[in-house]
Predict the 3D structure of the following.
Amino acid sequence: MSINSSLQQIAGGVAAAISGMIVVQKDKTSPLEHYDTLGILITIILLFAIYMVYRVSKIVKRRESSNS
């Protein structure tokens, strides 16, 4: 459990650092810039993750049916 939790924390920290590099604010009164770019990037990553979960699910089902 602690390894899983630490990996989640590391992933969250890396994601926040990368997001902080993409979204910038020139000064305290200016609006955030490149927020839309971050949204597009997150959407692409999410769709890729869904696809990968689907692929793994198909592989697991195929192996379970061949072992039976």
Notes: The longest helix spans residues 35-67. Residues 2-67 form one domain. The radius of gyration is 18 Å. DSSP finds two helices and no strands in the chain.
